[in-house]
Amino acid sequence: MPDTGAPGPGADPAPSGEWVTIDGVGYRRVVLCFLFRDAGRDAGRDGGRQVLLGLKRTGFGTGRVVALGGKIDGQETAREAAVREVAEESGIDLVPAEVRAAGSITWQFPAQPAWNMAASLFAADAGDATAVPCEEIEPRWYGVGAIPWQDMWQDAPHWIPTLLAGRPVQARIVMATDNEGVAVAVVD
Fold first, then answer.
1. Whole-model pTM?
2. CATH code assigned to 19-104+116-147
3. How far is 27 from 21, CA to CA, in rounded Å?
4. What is the DSSP letter of 37?
5. Using one digit for the tens of pLDDT, what is the confidence trace for 67-101?
């Protein structure tokens, strides 16, 4: 595996295979894409800005609320993977040029290295698009002040608030040996 280093802010890494090595550790290349919308006056207690997350029905993270995303396939770019994953998991078609780079994050699972991931983060405005469920994800809009932290991975509160505030995220997460807790969280 080539040592590609972590993608920088705003980067859309060139295709380089399913795995990368960063500081001697192998990571699966993945993407996460956060969609936002203005909930408008009829949004009730969640009024204002909302983010699309989803309850994971199958696969890695089943039962947790997660961002839309997944692994990068073949030779597609990270941005192309984000657009594809959003369409597959929510039925929302994004214009690639309108999908903004939002940073990068690595997750290291010392007790389960096959779960290590290096994610390129993206954000996009969803306008009035309607999200539809698929076999893998039950998408749902949440007010940015009403995120269901208790239903998410325990690392989420360490870095998602930065992204929700519109700032780029550069983070490194090392999970505890139980694969649940957070041993180290470095967020720049």
1. 0.88
2. 3.90.79.10
3. 6
4. E
5. 999 999 988 999 999 999 999 999 999 999 999 99
